[in-house]
């Protein structure tokens, strides 16, 4: 006989709208949630009140989506991701396994977050940005469109990074630093607190931010 894996039915609040969405076992769907037709929710997902998930979006196993979150069309939210209150994830974003996104942050269309990223409160991640594995974006950080941030970088609170900029792996960007557009910062290069880095600056490998 097949083993009973302890699967339990999902609990869906009567005020939730889920018709046409696929929902796994052991999920908890809160009040006034809207899952658009074609949304897919894997096993063991918790969704808080007033969350909206658009068509074609997939929520991976064991995700925890807090109250007031909006997730656009065609997004992929992987296993064990935690999205806290009032976060917006726009269309076609990809959020990898184990990421945490804190309250009030916005991830714009087509942005990608690697495994285990830790995104603070009120962070703005621009369209098409690529945030690599294990990056920390602390509270009130802004990342521009099509910017890439390398593995293990730590971007301190209140700093801003412009569009089409490349921050290589292991960089620490100090609090309230302002890095412009089309900038390149090499591997392991620190950016001091409050430092302004002009548009188009290309720091050579082994160089310093002057």
UniProtKB/TrEMBL annotation:
One of its GO terms (molecular function) is transferase activity. PANTHER family: 2,3,4,5-TETRAHYDROPYRIDINE-2,6-DICARBOXYLATE N-ACETYLTRANSFERASE, ACETYLTRANSFERASE. Keywords: Amino-acid biosynthesis, Diaminopimelate biosynthesis, Lysine biosynthesis, Transferase. The keyword Transferase applies. InterPro entries: Hexapep, Hexapep_transf_CS, Trans_hexapeptide_repeat, Trimer_LpxA-like_sf. The lineage of its organism: Eukaryota, Haptista, Haptophyta, Prymnesiophyceae, Prymnesiales. GO terms for biological process: diaminopimelate biosynthetic process; lysine biosynthetic process. The keyword Transferase applies. It comes from the Eukaryota. This is UDP-3-O-[3-hydroxymyristoyl] glucosamine N-acyltransferase non-repeat region domain-containing protein.
């Amino acid at each position: 006989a097949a083993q009973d894996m302890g699967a339990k039915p999902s609990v869906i609040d009567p005020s939730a709208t889920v018709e046409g969405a696929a929902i796994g076992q052991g999920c908890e769907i809160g009040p006034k949630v809207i899952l658009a037709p074609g949304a897919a929710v894997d096993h063991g997902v918790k969704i808080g009140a007033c969350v909206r998930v658009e068509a074609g979006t997939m929520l991976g196993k064991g995700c925890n989506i807090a109250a007031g979150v909006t997730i656009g069309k065609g997004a992929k939210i992987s296993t064990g991701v935690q999205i806290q209150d009032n976060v917006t994830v726009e269309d076609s974003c990809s959020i990898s396994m184990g990421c945490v996104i804190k309250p009030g942050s916005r991830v714009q269309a087509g942005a990608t977050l690697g495994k285990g990223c830790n995104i603070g409160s009120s962070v703005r991640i621009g369209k098409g940005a690529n945030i690599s594995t294990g990056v920390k974006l602390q509270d009130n950080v802004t990342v521009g469109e099509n910017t890439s941030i390398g593995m293990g970088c730590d971007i301190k609170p209140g700093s801003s990074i412009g569009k089409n900029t490349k921050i290589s792996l292991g960089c620490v960007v100090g609090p309230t630093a302002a890095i412009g557009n089309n900038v390149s910062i090499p591997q392991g290069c620190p950016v001091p607190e409050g430092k302004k880095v002009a548009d188009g600056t290309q720091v050579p490998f082994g160089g310093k931010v002057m």
